[in-house]
Design brief:
By secondary structure, the chain is an alpha/beta fold. Helices cover about 45% and strands about 15% of the residues. The structure holds zinc ion.
């Protein structure tokens, strides 16, 4: 591992201990082999002056909720050092009391809660303290002769701390252990099954000691192991099976999940190991991963429903075996799965959650193979892992993220998604927590929808092959399909029946009617195994109230409405709801330019404003109004409604 220290960058924070602390913390955070997603913590001891001019010795320690990779000055909590040192001397301290006492000792009540390791940082008598959960170090400690190996690598100048639960217990253990020792004779500490500490009065020295310590573990492992197995053949695809696995896991979780399938060479290679079922169920890389990944992975076999059921049962047994009175069992759903010969699947109620699990999984499967080669992947007993999983301080981290949004974990497909009602539906679904695949013939869709929660696909809906590819791309990306908002449509030039050009008629039927049947044909197999699946069809007021000159449009939309009614009948037994929206007088779409609006208003001898509000409620209808109703129809509010036709038009006397 290389030091990323740069004199030029560091010069900018010279003479400012906290700025330097931020700088080297970020250097640690940039290396995922050292820390992952909130793991690790750092501190600096300095002084701070309060409102009354009194100077205090202060420990600035990483605040909970911050990542080392992106931490800033305000991410460090300023805690009075004397209070922390006094706490270290207590016989006993409940972790919740510890957090309260630490907060009470902060110079800034608005700062984040200090890390649970704050007391440990305080008792280490150096200004800069760095702590990581380095893969290489933990891999070596997670073996049967881990402690011997650590002593062989580091010798006398690195102290070894047996595993103790993080928090007060760990600080107290280190305090007791080091009371008779001379810190000047120590280059760092290795915490078994947990990670490493380095320290110095200089930011660069503390950081570079960490790099050196970790490099020595990496070299030790490299000379004794072969690289983890990789598989270069792409895995065969079975998207229907993926969607079925996702459904079972979502049911166990009590809410829809996304399923992120990784068939990359490392994940695939791991899934092909003979003893993968054993390796993936021994325990996590470090106990703090348990709140993200659970203790074990799901190992898939023939029937995902049965596999998930067994996982849930064994999770409940693990809870019963280890729980003390008063604890409530957390949701028993797996967070990642081994899909033999296909790779791994990570689950999350959001893409971010699934990504965090996937990052931890990538490091875990590598560490497992390193440890196996070093003598055996040997993790902590389950009671230690349980203690961390059900630790109030870890649970508080999860609770801070709040309750998930209404459509969390849902996967939607929207057609005609690049503008107008379609784009408003995409944004509305995202606001409610869903991920969305958007189809549009406009190539701009690809850049317009390009983030973790959306996938823009250029697609001509009259091209069956392109549409099949698009549906599969969405399922491959997110693991299934729950919601279809079928919005695509074209409005042909107005013409009486005897003047309609054949191509204009055919094109309207192809886009406004036939493409929808083709799309549903592709989606129905996935919707049948979706989470509370729903189809929302954007039809038109032309269905209940046709107008002269719009035959090609009205006929196609009437056909589409009939198609949706039949779909509601056919799909009801599978729980798929199909509802229909009839929008009208939506003037904020590309179709209605200022010129067109002015021309129409002039035609009726009214102002543009009057023209836009010519409805019973005298109100303007926007594409967002339509989208809000479409999103509601896709959600739980309409869970008992199917085959319904609802107008969103401000009220039309011809329909009322
Ligand atoms: Zn730690």
């Amino acid at each position: 591992m290389q030091s990323l220290w740069n004199d030029g960058e560091a010069a900018a924070c010279r003479d400012d201990p906290l700025a330097l602390r931020v700088y080297t913390s970020r250097l640690l955070g940039r290396e995922p082999d050292l820390v992952l997603h909130g793991g690790g913590n750092t501190s600096v001891k300095t002084t701070a002056t309060d409102l009354f001019g009194n100077t205090h010795a202060v420990l600035y320690v990483k605040g909970s909720g911050w990542d080392l990779e992106t931490i800033e000055g305000p991410g460090f909590a300023p805690v009075r050092l004397d209070a922390l040192l006094a706490m270290a001397e207590l016989e006993q301290l409940d972790d919740s009391d510890m957090v309260r006492a630490q907060r009470a000792a902060m110079l800034d009540p608005n700062a984040p809660s200090p890390s649970v390791e704050a007391i440990l940082h305080a008792i280490i008598p150096f200004d800069y303290v760095d702590h990581t959960h380095a893969d290489a170090v933990v891999s070596v400690t997670n073996t049967p002769d881990g402690e011997e190996a650590i002593r062989e690598i580091y010798g006398e100048r690195v102290w070894v701390v047996p595993y103790v639960m993080p928090g007060f217990a760990l600080a107290q253990a280190v305090n007791t252990m080091t009371r008779e020792k001379d810190w000047a004779e120590c280059d760092g500490m290795i915490l078994m099954n947990h990670g490493a500490f380095t320290f110095a009065d200089d930011a660069k020295a503390a950081y570079e000691k960490m790099i050196e310590l970790v490099s020595r573990a990496e070299e030790y492992a490299a000379t004794r192991t072969t690289p983890p197995r990789t598989s270069l053949e792409p895995p065969s695809e079975d998207l229907e099976a993926l969607a079925a696995i996702r459904r079972s896991v979502g049911a166990a979780r009590g809410g829809a999940v996304l399923a992120r399938w990784d068939g990359d060479p490392a994940s695939l290679g791991f899934s092909e190991l003979q003893d993968v079922a054993d390796l993936a169920t021994r325990g996590p890389l470090t106990p703090d991963h348990v709140i993200r990944t659970k203790r074990t992975a799901l190992v898939l076999g023939e029937d995902p429903a049965v596999d998930v059921e067994q996982y849930v049962a064994s999770y409940r047994e693990y809870f019963e075996r280890n729980a003390s009175e008063g604890l409530t069992c957390l949701d028993p759903a797996p967070r990642w799965a081994i899909w033999p010969k296909r790779g791994t699947i990570c689950f999350g109620r959001s893409p971010k959650e699934a990504r965090i699990v996937a990052d931890i999984k990538d490091h875990t499967i590598r560490a497992i193979q390193v440890a196996e080669a070093l003598g055996g992947w040997n993790v902590l007993p389950e009671k230690d892992v349980f203690e961390v999983e059900y630790w109030v301080l870890e649970q508080a981290k999860l609770a801070r993220s709040g309750s998930p949004p209404l459509l969390a974990g849902k996967i939607a497909l929207v057609t005609g998604a690049a503008s107008g009602i379609g784009l408003a539906c995409v944004r509305g679904l995202q606001r409610l927590g869903a991920v969305v695949g958007g189809l549009d013939v406009d190539p701009a869709i690809v850049e317009l929808m390009d983030s973790e929660t959306e996938l823009g696909i250029e697609c001509d809906v009259t091209d069956d092959g392109a549409m099949a590819d698009a549906v599969r791309a969405i399922v491959r990306q997110y693991g299934g399909l729950d919601i279809v908002i079928d919005n695509v449509g074209v409005f042909p030039t107005s013409a009486p029946i005897d003047k309609i050009r054949a191509e204009a008629w055919d094109h309207s039927i192809a886009v406004n009617l036939t493409s929808h049947q083709r799309l549903w044909q592709l989606c129905i197999p996935f919707l049948r195994i979706g989470a509370d699946p729903a189809v929302v069809v954007i039809a038109s007021k032309n269905v209940p109230a046709p107008g002269p000159g719009a035959a090609a449009y009205s006929v196609a939309k009437a056909g589409l409405t009939q198609l949706a009614r039949v779909a509601a009948l056919e799909l009801g037994e599978a729980g798929v709801r199909v509802n229909i929206l009839h929008p009208d007088k939506v003037y904020d779409t590309a179709l209605w330019t200022t010129e067109v609006l002015e021309a129409r208003a002039a035609h009726y001898g009214v102002s543009v404003e009057e023209y836009k509000t010519r409805n019973v409620l005298r109100t303007e209808v926007s594409s967002h109004d339509v989208a809000d109703l479409a999103c509601a129809m896709a959600g739980p509010l309409f869970s008992k409604t199917t085959g319904a036709q609802v107008a969103v038009d401000g009220g039309d006397i011809r329909i009322i």
